[in-house]
Amino acid sequence: SRSIDLAVIPGDGIGQEVVAEGLKVLSAVLPQDVKLETKEYDFGARRYHATGDTLTDADLEQLKRHDAILLGAIGDPSVPSGVLERGFLLKLRFAFDHHVNLRPSKLLPGVATPLAGQPEIDFIVVREGTEGPYTGNGGTIRKGTPHEVATEVSVNTAFGVERVVRDAFERAQARPRKKLTLVHKNNVLTFAGHLWTGIFNKVAEEYPEVTTDYIHVDAATIYLVTDPGRFDVIVTDNLFGDIITDLAAAVSGGIGVAASGNINPSREFPSMFEPVHGSAPDIAGQGKADPTATVLSVALLLRHLGYDTEADRIEQAVSADLAERGALPARSTSEIGDALAVRVAG
Amino acid sequence: SRSIDLAVIPGDGIGQEVVAEGLKVLSAVLPQDVKLETKEYDFGARRYHATGDTLTDADLEQLKRHDAILLGAIGDPSVPSGVLERGFLLKLRFAFDHHVNLRPSKLLPGVATPLAGQPEIDFIVVREGTEGPYTGNGGTIRKGTPHEVATEVSVNTAFGVERVVRDAFERAQARPRKKLTLVHKNNVLTFAGHLWTGIFNKVAEEYPEVTTDYIHVDAATIYLVTDPGRFDVIVTDNLFGDIITDLAAAVSGGIGVAASGNINPSREFPSMFEPVHGSAPDIAGQGKADPTATVLSVALLLRHLGYDTEADRIEQAVSADLAERGALPARSTSEIGDALAVRVAG
Ligand SMILES: CC(C)[C@H](C(=O)O)[C@@H](O)C(=O)O
Ligand SMILES: CC(C)[C@H](C(=O)O)[C@@H](O)C(=O)O
Questions:
Q1: pLDDT band at A279, cuts 50/70/90?
Q2: Residues of chain B under the 70 pLDDT cut
Q3: How far apart are CA A270 and CA A307, in angstroms?
Q4: Per the record, where is site Important for catalysis (chains A, B) (predicted)?
Q5: How far apart are CA A169 and CA A232, in angstroms?
Q6: Contact B270/B64 with Cβ under 8 angstroms?
Q7: For a Cys-Cys bond, which of A195, A236, A305, A312 suits B150, CB 3.0-4.6 Å?
Q8: Is B186 close to A242, i.e. CB distance below 8 A?
Q9: How many CB pairs under 8 A join A and B?
Q10: Structure confidence at residue A273 (pLDDT)
């Protein structure tokens, strides 16, 4: 008999509320014969204030044993900027080698977009997750003086770039349009740009069916608002991926519906799935948060573990629910979760 | 009697066409008593192919003598990516210490935007122009091997950050809304982020009338499409500024109308004014390019040199022209230039 052993990290702010709905829908969609085990972890602002810890070696040992991780949101204004981001979120991505940061963008029927004319949007971004300017390399001298110098070093390796580029080609190959766009800034960041572009072009030779192109990151933001339909799969570096996926989420229905996976394709470590939105402390605890992004992250999680049918059912339920939203009065976090649970079970 | 001694760099692609119209409007707007002298320079792809040079020390000596520089566009597919960007555009910005890269975004009446609901947009971005990941620091080891490592170093100094932050506060102070937003990614790029945020907060104390806030660059792209009206003045680093100003141009009428100034506020070296768009080789030589961005760059140039009345006249002419465009048949590059020249003279 099958089983899923899940680490659950509700985290801060609305994280608690949305994760509860994600688990509700997960339980509802799984067939009887699949045993679901969950273990909750208390990472985030409260743990940090209580103990000063964000994520210890012992924590990582425990997390490692699970099949996958579901995360709500981490971050709170009471903690200095960077402490939880570097100390928990990025530490986990690096420790578990989450080098494929997968972020789909699909504008579903009935969903509002800030763009005029309701364009067709259906692409995925494969963001590198363990290199680039996110490595924490760099430093500061003469801190706090008029002669302070602070550096940030973007580190890019052939090993790291090639594996994520290959992953993106595989995903492009599996999609009907088979189109892959490299987004970088190779006219200015020439060292990293040369590495990315060279590897991209080399791997492309192995995928003759995949159409490829290249766009500078600044121009990519223009296309995302003027012609988002041109994108099918995008592969890009860690920082550019961070920036364009927030924009991609905004144009395809908002961060209320944007899901993401921090994936270790080799399965050496568990992958982590989380909504793109943050902890939104201003609306926390009020039942106002939209759990849809978390529910869609559960679908990505199921697909990663091989439960494609169940992932499809969740995505269909979300589509149907969103299509009807305009006609319904506003619902609370748990009402949306209930409605989705009913749909996936039905 | 007054005079303007201008270096003119038409450059590549549509650069030639749009600069001709910029000069046409400049001549038309200047009062009789102002003597306009122009000297044309042949930088760009042709010069590079003919001589292998992009910008020599002797060139810089010559350019230095002018009051200001008007540039069309530099870049051609026949030149490897990075050669003209690093060898000319960035070399000039660094050599002449153009640390204030000024990019206004205003959605004028009658101008199409990809955003629904025709929002009000009127802000300026003050992008740092001489530091950050644009310094060319970094390098490559084991090039072309499976063990290649490429680094890009973002260099940030208290000196460089403080002067651009001060410039932005001055500009915010002079605008009716008096609001300044710092855009960075201080939760991940903690070394540079700490420097930027610390200096921003320190300088803010000297400008009690200016309202300030901070937004991560990823979230800034969301606001630029969902609530662009929230911005008045933005100050940001070189790379973030590059990215968000292309998006800002896209939502406020497109790069056909986006102007920019590469400014040395100390006037130690001439400042350079250019449209944000590139050389667009696909439409070059066909009279299809919109010269409006160049004409608006001429207005920025005039304002920099103290010709505020003339700058206002150009901006009013452009507003009036754009407001009528929807009702007119499509016009060529020079027809638009002619129309603007008539308006500013009248
Ligand atoms: C919170 C932050 C560390 C994170 C990132 O920059 O990757 C977030 O913006 C994201 O996109 O997941
Ligand atoms: C062409 C390139 C070097 C330049 C930049 O990145 O600054 C351009 O994109 C711009 O914004 O002026």
A1: very high
A2: none
A3: 16
A4: 134, 185
A5: 11
A6: yes
A7: A195
A8: no
A9: 214
A10: 98
- CA-to-CA distance for B237 and B161, rounded, in angstroms? 8
The C-alpha atoms of residue B314 and residue B23 are separated, in whole angstroms, by 12
Structural domains in chain B, CATH included, are 1-104+254-346 (3.40.718.10), 113-252 (3.40.718.10)
A278 carries a ligand binding annotation: yes
Q: How far is B301 from chain A (nearest CA, A)?
A: 24
pLDDT tens per residue across span A157-189: 999 999 999 999 999 999 999 999 999 999 999
- What's this model's pTM, rounded to 2 decimal places? 0.97
Catalytic, A214? Answer no
B177 is in an annotated binding site: no
Please give the full DSSP string across B270-333, using - where no structure is assigned.
-EEEEESS---GGGTTTT-S-THHHHHHHHHHHHHTT-HHHHHHHHHHHHHHHHHHTTSPP--H
Strand A138-141, strand A149-157: pairing:
antiparallel
| Nearest-atom index, ligand 2, CA of A216 | 9
Say whether pLDDT at A346 is over 80. no
Asked if B249 lies within 8 A of A222 by C-beta distance, the reply is: yes
How is residue A162 written in tokens? 């090639």
Nearest CA to ligand 2 atom 7: B242
**Average pLDDT in the A42-69 region?**
97
Q: What angle is formed at CA B39 by the lines to CA B35 and CA B43, rounded to 5 degrees?
A: 150
